[in-house]
C-alpha cells in the first residue's frame, strides 16, 4: 500500500480510509505512513510499535506537536470510502474519527519544508481501546523528550473549530448492602435496592458546576450510567451497585474529583474504577494565543475527554482542532465535509507559513 | 424399582428419596408409586402423565384430598439418602421437600382400608418448575371431578404443624424512560436511572398490611427483587427497570392485587409479569376445624405461595401440613427429622380412624 502525499487532502483522506486499520490492526497503515514520511528529507522519522513520529529540526523559537490516531472502531459496513461530490461530503469509516485529520497532518508534513515553528508530527496507534494500548500514552512514558513542545494540536474532530482543554472523567461504583431473605417473608431481610433510593435521590438533586476557565465555560456532570441488583425473583436482594460517571472541569485535579465524589456519596461504599485528568485550556500561553487568533472564530471548551490530557501531563497546553462533526464519530454513517478538510489544511498552513 | 408399603415411614421415605426424580424425570418414581397403589384392593387408581390419583369410595359423608408432589430440584451431591440415627435425622435430596410427606401419604393409603372419611390421594409431577408443567394444575383442568372434596391437605414441609392458606404473589416491571446522551454532555439527555429514585422512594416508604383472617395474621410485602439500567459507561441511560414482587394476603383477589400495585406506582409504566392467587385459610369449614382440633398445636398462616391455591380455585379449603422445616428445602443439606415423619403419620391416622 502506498500513499500519495502530492494528492489533494480529500484524495489523501480517501487513501487513508481505504487502508483498514481497526484498533490492534494498524500495521499496514503505519507502514505506509512511515514509508511516505521517510521520503521527505526535511523530517527525521522515529517508529515505536505502530506509532510514527516525524520532526523538523530548524532551530525555531517554538515547537508544536500535531497529533492524530491511526486506528478506527470496528468496520460497520462502511468501507471503502464513498465520495458524494454534489453534497461535498466524504463518507466512510474513519473519515471523521480521524483520518481526515491525519490527512491534514500528512499534507503539512509534505508541503511545509520550512515551517515558521518547528513541528513534531505524531501518528499513533490504539486510541479507540483501553488506555494501556494507547500509542500516545506509551510515547509519553518511553520517549517524553520526543514530545517536548510549547503547544500541541490534537486533530480530533471538532467541526474545524478550536475546542480547548478537556474535562476529566471518573467512574465509581456506589454500593449498598442488605440482608437476603425469601420475598414471602421479606421482613426478615433488608432490601439493598430500597437502600439505593438515597443514592438516586442525591444524583437527581445534583447541581452541576459551570466554572469559567480562560474565558471558556465548562459544564460538569454526575450521572448514573448503570445500576444492577437482584438475586432471584423470590429473594430480597443483599446488594445493589450504582455505576456513576463524573465529568469534571479541568480546574479540579483527579484527587479533588475523587474527594468530591466520596463526599457526595458520604455514608455509602464508593469504589473508584477509572480516573483520568482533564486538561486546562492553556489559552494564556503565547503559542496557543497565536494559534487561536490565526484560526479565528469561536473557541469552545471540550466537554469529552480526549488525548489532549496526555499533553497536560507533560505540561504542554493543547487544543482539539480537526475536521468532522464528533457526533458522527463511531456511527455507521460516519462522514466528513470536504470543506472542513480544506479549511483545516489552509488555516494551519497560513499559521505555519 | 419397587416400593415396600409395609415398611415403616422412615424406610419408605428413604426408598422414595433413592429413586431420583428431578422435575421432568419423574417417570420411574411415578411407575413405582402407581404399581404399589394398584396392589391395594380398596383403592381405584388413575394415572395422568406422571401423576397418580388413588381414591377410596366408601360413601362417607366427607371426602378429603391428601396431596404431595413427586419431583425434586436438581441433585446437589445429596443422594442417596443418609440416616443419622443418633440425631434422629434422615438426610438427602427430597427428604424435606417432599418425599417425607409422600411416604406418609403412601402409609395412609396402605394402612387405612376403611378410613372415617373418603380419601383421594394425589401424587403429582413437576411442582418445582414453571406452572404450565404442574401435575396438580393440569388435573384441575383435565379432571376437576377427580379432585372434588370437602377439604384438602397439601403435605408441603411445615414443621409437622398446620399452616393455613397461602399468600398470593405478583411480579411486575416498573419502567422509567429518558433520553440517551453522551455522559460528557449529560445535560443534553434525560437520565432514566435518576428517574427511578421516586420508584425506590415509594418502595422504601411502603408500609405492609397485616390483616387477620380466620384468626391468623398474614403479612404482606412489596419488594424490589431486581433492578437494571445502563447502556455503556459513557452514555446517559434511557431506560431503567425495577422488578418488584408483591406478596399479598389471601383476602385480596388477583385483580385487587394488580390494582394496588398499579396505584402504588401511579405515574410509572407498570407491566405485570406473573400473578398467582392466594388461598384463604378456610378454617371455618367443618372438615378443616375437625382436622385442626385433631392435630392440636398452633396454626400459622402460610406466607409463601404453595399449591394450596390450586384447591382454592376449585372452592376447596386447604392447608399445608407436612414433615420437615421449609428452610431446608432446596438446600444442599436438606433433611427431615424422623420424629416429624412418625408424628404426621400418627396424627393423620388418628384423625382418619
From TrEMBL, chains A, B:
Keywords recorded for this protein, A-Z: Amino-acid biosynthesis, Cobalt, Diaminopimelate biosynthesis, Hydrolase, Lysine biosynthesis, Metal-binding, Zinc
Domain Peptidase M20 dimerisation: 168-264
Listed EC numbers: 3.5.1.18
InterPro entries: Bact_exopeptidase_dim_dom, Peptidase_M20, Peptidase_M20_dimer, Peptidase_M20A, Succinyl-DAP_deSuclase_DapE
Gene3D superfamilies assigned: 3.30.70.360, Zn peptidases (3.40.630.10)
UniProt cross-references to SUPFAM superfamilies, sorted A to Z: Bacterial exopeptidase dimerisation domain, Zn-dependent exopeptidases
Chain segments annotated as transmembrane: none
The keyword Amino-acid biosynthesis is assigned to this record: yes
Reactions the enzyme catalyzes: N-succinyl-(2S,6S)-2,6-diaminopimelate + H2O = (2S,6S)-2,6-diaminopimelate + succinate
Any one GO molecular function term: acetylornithine deacetylase activity
Reported cofactor(s): Co(2+); Zn(2+)
NCBIfam families for this protein: dapE-gram_pos (TIGR01900)
Name of the protein: Succinyl-diaminopimelate desuccinylase
Species annotation: Nocardioides seonyuensis
Amino acid at each position: 500500500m502506498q500513499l500519495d502525499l502530492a494528492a489533494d487532502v480529500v484524495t489523501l483522506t480517501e487513501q487513508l480510509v481505504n487502508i483498514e486499520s481497526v484498533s490492534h490492526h494498524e500495521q499496514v497503515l503505519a507502514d505506509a505512513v512511515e514509508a511516505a514520511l521517510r521520503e521527505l528529507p526535511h523530517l527525521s522519522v522515529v517508529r515505536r510499535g505502530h506509532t510514527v513520529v516525524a520532526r523538523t529540526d530548524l532551530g525555531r523559537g517554538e515547537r508544536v506537536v500535531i497529533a492524530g490516531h491511526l486506528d478506527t472502531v470496528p468496520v460497520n459496513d462502511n468501507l471503502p470510502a464513498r465520495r458524494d461530490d454534489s453534497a461535498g461530503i466524504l463518507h466512510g469509516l474513519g473519515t471523521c474519527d480521524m483520518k481526515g485529520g491525519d490527512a491534514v497532518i500528512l499534507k503539512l508534513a509534505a508541503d511545509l519544508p520550512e515551517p515558521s515553528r518547528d513541528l513534531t508530527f505524531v501518528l499513533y496507534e490504539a486510541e479507540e481501546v483501553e488506555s494501556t494500548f494507547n500509542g500516545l500514552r506509551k510515547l509519553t512514558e518511553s520517549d517524553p523528550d520526543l514530545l517536548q513542545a510549547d503547544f500541541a494540536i490534537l486533530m480530533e474532530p471538532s467541526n474545524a473549530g478550536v475546542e480547548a482543554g478537556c474535562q476529566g472523567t471518573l467512574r465509581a461504583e456506589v454500593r449498598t448492602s442488605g440482608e437476603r431473605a425469601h420475598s414471602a417473608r421479606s421482613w426478615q431481610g433488608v432490601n439493598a435496592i430500597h437502600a439505593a433510593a438515597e443514592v438516586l435521590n442525591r444524583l437527581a438533586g445534583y447541581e452541576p458546576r459551570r466554572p469559567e476557565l480562560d474565558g471558556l465555560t465548562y459544564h460538569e456532570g454526575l450521572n448514573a450510567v448503570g445500576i444492577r441488583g437482584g438475586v432471584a425473583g423470590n429473594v430480597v436482594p443483599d446488594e445493589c451497585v450504582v455505576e456513576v460517571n463524573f465529568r469534571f472541569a479541568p480546574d479540579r485535579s483527579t484527587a479533588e474529583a475523587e474527594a468530591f465524589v466520596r463526599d457526595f456519596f458520604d455514608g455509602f461504599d464508593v469504589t473508584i474504577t477509572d480516573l483520568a485528568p482533564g486538561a486546562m485550556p492553556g489559552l494564556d500561553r503565547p503559542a496557543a494565543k497565536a494559534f487561536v487568533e490565526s484560526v479565528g472564530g469561536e473557541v469552545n471548551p471540550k466537554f469529552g475527554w480526549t488525548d489532549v490530557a496526555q499533553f497536560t501531563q507533560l505540561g504542554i497546553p493543547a487544543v482539539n482542532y480537526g475536521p468532522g462533526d464528533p457526533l458522527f464519530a463511531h456511527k455507521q454513517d460516519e462522514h466528513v465535509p470536504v470543506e472542513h478538510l480544506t479549511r483545516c489544511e489552509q488555516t494551519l498552513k497560513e499559521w505555519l507559513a
